[in-house]
Amino acid sequence: MNHHEVRDLMSEAVVRVQGGTPFKEIAHLLQEYDITAVPVVDEQNRPVGVVSEADLLYKMWDGQEEDDTDGEGGFPRAAKARATDAAGLMTAPALCAREDWSVVDAARLMARHRIKRLLVVDDDGRLVGVVSRSDLLRVFLRADQAIRTEIVEEVLVKELGEAPSSVQVDVAHGHVVLSGRLSSPDAVPRLEELCRDVDGVVAVEFRPGPGTGREGPSG
Length: 219
Description:
The chain is of the alpha/beta class. It is 32% helix and 21% strand. The chain is elongated.
């Protein structure tokens, strides 16, 4: 089975700045393009950091809080409040995904770091796009028939070596219902696991046929 890759879902139109870009120009770009952050790149178009709306708002910091770190990259708030260009404002290093990563890998990195988007780089580390949470969620718009076809052809036949007629596969709104009998009861958990791993699947339920040794649904 092959997951969608980041390159399939990313946006290639990326507004970017360099380290010397002034504060007000960054603020203007965020408003003009209706975005909340902008990557900072070097002369070779390699990401070195990200400036977000939150970074700009430190300009209003009054220095009264005891904790002088921003809670994200551990950067002093006072330093960001004094910064006048992207190099001083940015949070670094920039978290990046490779364009050939699977959507699962990208989603896990986003979840781990609690971020809304990832910069996408090529094999040379150059910025080629950006992928957001909403981009990754597009896999759940996948047609039910496409999901069913992958389960039958890739999971049942290629992965498990079962006859396509051994299990009835029904898919509705990403909910997969499997009913039938496999050559071995031990193959059932593996079947369910593989089905959950198919892009666009929301839930999996197995309804055993006679002699499967399984009872009840599995979510």
